[in-house]
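Changelog-adjacent note: as of this version, every example in the card shows the full chain rather than a window. The one below runs 291 residues end to end.
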Amino acid sequence: MGEAWHALRESLAPIMDLSTAEIIKQKGGPGWMFRPLGGGLVGLFQHGEFGVISASGGALTSLRTAGVLGDYLMAIGAHPYRITRLDATVDLFVDAPPIIASIAAAARSGGVSLSRKAVPVSDVVTQISLDARGVLTGTVYVGSKDARVRGVVYDKRHQQESPPMSNPDPGPWLRYEIRLRRDVGASLHDAWDAGPLFWHYCPPEFLAAPDGVVPWVPHGEGFTMERRADYTPALLIRGRLDRDPLVDRLIELADSIPGPGGRQFLLDSFARRIGLSQRQSRGPVPDKSAA
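Full-length structure tokens:
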């Protein structure tokens, strides 16, 4: 496992360099948490003889936006792997409380099925409280915590407004979530395109599938994606400068300096930071073909 672990780390390193805002070294063992520029978390750990990788939904969205999700998945797929959990979601920007109440009632009647059998009423759990508008809302869990397939429907607006997040009101927001554990046949292909998997397990009492849904294929493999060019240092530097919000903030600060010389001051300050003279900071630019 040692060689495979290091090979996986090496193949993921440039992808994280290009798309990560923060790298957090974990205490007590070989592991890292990466915070992509667009949000979310990617974890890379060693657990006994195995490597463990986790990525939040927000992180996968960020990697896709940065154009590196395919490379991330193919780097993992180059090694033997098994998916132990995958969450597939659909968000609707609608008023959540009445829909959650309706789904909870259907599930408590024993009429909701996530596979071949209806989910036992004993495995239906609701967590309801008053939201900021004084309306009862919350979350419905359909299926036990240890089930191979579990459905969750919750008021994302209420979650965002409540502690510990305590964010401003995002407006009506309902999330449908299908949580799948090991042995259901999920693959990296489903992390790339979770639509068929979601609709395969989503019960009609949750949400009716649209027309033209592609059937889900368990253990789906064999898909290919165009890889980026080699992750050269020039590409990584250019990519970070183009995407990093800290750079945008530094430009804003430079533009707030009275007079026309703010951006030149920023450039000269950066040149001093990396040990270049003002003349050297105006040196040749790397070949664009390398970036």
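Structural remarks: DSSP finds ten helices and nine strands in the chain.
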